[in-house]
Amino acid sequence: MSRWDPWRGCHRCSEGCKFCYIHKGDAKRGIDTNIIVRSEKFDRPIERKKRSGEYKMASSEVYTCFSSDFLLEDADEWRPHAWKIIKERSDCVFIFLTKRIERFMKCIPDDWGDGYDNVVVCCTVENQENADRKLSVFQELPIKHKQITAQPLIENIEIEKYLDGIDAVVVGGESDRNARPLYYDWVLSIREQCIRKNVAFTFRQCGTHFIKDGKLYNLQVKDLCSQARKAGIDFIPQ
User: Fold this and answer.
1) Residues 2-28 pLDDT 10s
2) Do 125 and 137 meet the contact criterion of CB atoms below 8 Å apart?
């Protein structure tokens, strides 16, 4: 598993961005997240070893642009080159999340067709309004591998009607001392929707403020993912 950030920086664009970990981390380091910059490691996936000529990055899943948004407007001039890198590394699977799925058709390469085999696009939603708006667009897009990321989930949502053609759904809460609470019932509801449609489901992380069976649990950030795993509710279709 590898990570590739061709550019960094982002702009808040939805309710789910309120306590964005990128903005929080940058603020601690005195960095203005709203300034979008091309990474010095832009060509990382295609860098080669001097002696053997082999790629330095091994064949793997590549988490792409996790310090930004792959469809960010500010990166339009760099994205064509990024697509060329993705196409060259057909032995890797590039996974990116986006809150800007409505821009997708403006951002694809000319030879996209019905999608690249090695690209997974994850549409991020956090409430019912954005789920309806974004997933109604997402379901019509020519993408071979689609996932939905409901993180941070800030209210109960119904997404079952959008699950046709979806490979997986990932759910998680918000991490911040002022985070909006995550109700376990919301998580279980999405899980049941996925089971009915035979779509993979992953409970990625609890929220800092997690409510289960009417009881509020205040969790540390370091425990959010491990506590979600302990729930043992991930679903893998047979």
Assistant:
1) 999 999 999 999 999 998 888 988 888
2) no
